[in-house]
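#data-curation
PF: Archiving a pair of folding outputs for the training set. Convention for this channel: one message per protein, sequence first, structure tokens after, nothing in between. First:
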Amino acid sequence: MKNLVKVSLLIVAFLAFSFTGLKREKKFIKTDDSQVVWKGYKVTGSHQGTIAIESGELVMEEGELVGGAFVIDMTSIEVTDLQGEYKGKLEGHLKSDDFFGVENHPTASLVFTKVESSGKNAYDVTGDLTIKNITHPISFTISIYGNKATAALKIDRSKYNVKYGSTSFFDNLKDKAIYDEFDLVTDLQF
């Protein structure tokens, strides 16, 4: 009789863990079909471009977002509002140690640490953003519709030791100043 009870408890525990595991599902990002657009601002205007997602996933539980993680390929920084020589110069400068130092820091990452539903298909996310091996929390909203997700992030580059043209680090820049905050807008498919 004791053995029957032990076996029954073992079966119940196994089934409970098995079904609990089935509820959580990773939705892997289709990197070739997804896009991240960046936009940086300076006193005299702005520049924008794209950057590639190396890998990413959203974690769902019973159809609700509960987590996520992304790796960004910093070597893929591209400028889309310039052409020719100026495009190449700006891309090279953004990849240099003046900005993101991609030779030593080829990737950046974002790991969700807290996710809360904020309405139909919308979630407030807090995550750890790592750029140049420096990690800070960041908060944003992500919307999910079917197999697509969108989010807009505002990032303060001065927190990640990206100093070039920043009034947080240098005085008297006048019209050469570049604002610390830049935008990332993501269109994800999974």
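PF: Second:
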Amino acid sequence: MTKEITSAAIDKFTNDLSNHAGINIASHAAQENGIFKASQNLQSKIDLTPTFSVEIDTGKPADQKQSGRCWMFSALNTMRHPLQKEYKIKDFELSQNYTNFWDKFEKSNFFFENVIASAKKPLGDRKVSFLFATPQQDGGQWDMLCGLVEKYGIVPKSVYPETANSNNSGALNDTLNTLLRKDGLKLRALVNAGKSEDEIEQRKNQFLNDVFRILAISLGVPPKKFDFEYKDDDGNYHREAGITPKEFFDRFVGMNLEDHVSIINSPTDDKPYHKVFSVEYLGNVVGGRQVRHLNVKISEMKDLIIKQLKAGEVVWFGSNVGKDSERQLGLLDTNIYKRDELFDVDFSMSKGDKLDSSESMMDHAMVITGVDLVDNKPTKWKIENSWGEKPGFKGYFVMSDSWFDQFVYQAVINKKFLPDDLRTAFDEGAKDPIQLLPWDPMGALAFK
């Protein structure tokens, strides 16, 4: 039986305030400065000085502006760093708008195909509602970027630059989602009217033609071939004429994407360690690379990342950047705010409980470029963000090891660094991964 809040209970709560020492000071500080400023711990700034024993120089950070393409920027950053070094091109960037175009186009087809497959279910079905809630968006994960590159290649940013609609994606997303919902309902009607597969496919392609036109007007038409011209840091001129995006990726990036796998840390009862998981409705390229995650212990994840950094390779990772973070200072630390002391309340939760209760989930992707090891144990990590040079240390953040424990959920590791047991676990599990429901926290998209 439900029970209301009584006046007696409120009187009791009010009288209890006097039992908490320093409540007047806490009240003044919180009401004048806000909760986070009032509880900010300056010791974090001291502990997280940007000095690292293992560090990879990656140059100037990129800027995703007002878009949710962090996963895309971070993934392309991991690909551009070796290219910058090998070809001596300082601050070179790959085109994030190029992958953005194809991502939105492929996500539209992915949405239509899932709508057709689920058309017999009622609109009130939770999975159907999930599909129509956000037909497409800016967010994504590592495997989704790989699927795009494997199909379409990549181009330099100079060849296919940003536009107003890629830098600030709100209007384009709203426009596309309105159209996709409208056309999605039409496809459901065709299926339920018993129309043939050919007729449904024909209508879907008509809808995709409209999507392509909207993207072409908003973002530009992606090049099929282009001339790659540049001067290296020594002032030497280079030109590669008539190269395709896939040829450019193979020649100038040359990363074997199949060798890079996603590992996650999800300490929840439903996800045993060393098992491979996928998520229903998570993807973009129909018939392309499937999202696959190998669940590992947090200690295993750290060991693998450190191995990769020591070998000179940066690491793409996904985390909950909105928690215990100070954007302008560029600090990620579980001790940066002392809200428990401010309010005299215990806020502590296990990582598993945070995931199970939706208190936390992945919302942002960045790149780990360094670590500070003391007695061979990590104390802090160097992070390349994609929010430009203003926040943090000229665009770089410092993450405490305790923050890593609580809020890092995913990392991409070169398979050569996996021990035999984990490599076998991934290779065997990837053949038939355990399917998670669409709203599982491991299906959360990095979008900040």
